[in-house]
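TASK: fixed-backbone design
INPUT:
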């Protein structure tokens, strides 16, 4: 019989799944059911692999994950129900040609907005069997921009992003995030330093390199 002992994580760079700090501090101590915990971790993993801004999961997505067995249908429904009741996942139902189908969103600002849009009927068939619905005219907002490029969003950061969206042009924020990614400085403090510098001095695309270096120094000093 092969050993069930985990051989260890591989050497070198490997893909990681981002999990918000609030999960460990607020949710994990309250989750009692192993199925709910497994569903939650699978959801983090699957959603982190989706590139579309309108990200959601369906029941079959969980069955396709190696951490959930194909024959555990009742257990999956029970675990999903617990995660929804607990407020970890949000559920919204759509009526497709083949009948109603439940979509599951992570309870983040972007997930709440998407689930609300689906419940309001603001969606269209996509023609993609793997992702059958989409929000028409969806444009990346500042929350999506942050999560897609910098990392998981926390409530405190969400407030800062809302304030930044009211303060700076959308193009500035997108450019500043791009500079942060290019410099492997995926921190909001780095982006904020660039934006503040542009606000004081004015934005000149020719000086982006200098702005990124100033932001790096301010970030390292903890500004």
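OUTPUT:
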């Amino acid at each position: 019989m092969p050993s069930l002992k985990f051989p260890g994580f591989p050497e070198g760079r490997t893909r990681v799944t981002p999990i918000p700090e609030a999960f460990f501090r607020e949710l994990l101590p309250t989750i009692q059911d192993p199925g709910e915990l497994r569903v939650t971790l699978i959801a983090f993993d699957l959603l982190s692999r989706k590139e579309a801004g309108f990200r959601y999961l369906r029941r079959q997505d969980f069955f396709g994950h190696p951490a959930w067995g194909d024959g555990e249908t009742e257990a999956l429904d029970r675990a999903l129900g617990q995660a929804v009741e607990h407020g970890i996942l949000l559920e919204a139902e759509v009526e497709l040609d083949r009948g109603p189908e439940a979509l599951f969103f992570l309870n983040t600002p972007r997930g709440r907005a998407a689930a609300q849009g689906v419940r309001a009927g603001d969606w269209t068939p996509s023609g993609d069997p793997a992702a059958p619905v989409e929000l028409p005219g969806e444009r990346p907002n500042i929350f999506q921009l942050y999560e897609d490029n910098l990392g998981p969003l926390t409530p405190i950061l969400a407030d800062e992003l809302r304030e930044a969206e009211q303060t700076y042009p959308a193009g500035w924020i997108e450019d500043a995030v791009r500079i942060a990614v290019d410099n492997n400085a995926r921190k909001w403090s780095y982006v904020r330093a660039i934006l503040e510098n542009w606000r004081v001095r004015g934005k000149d695309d020719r000086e982006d390199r200098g702005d990124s270096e100033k932001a790096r120094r301010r970030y390292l000093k903890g500004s």
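COMMENT: The chain has a mean pLDDT of 83.
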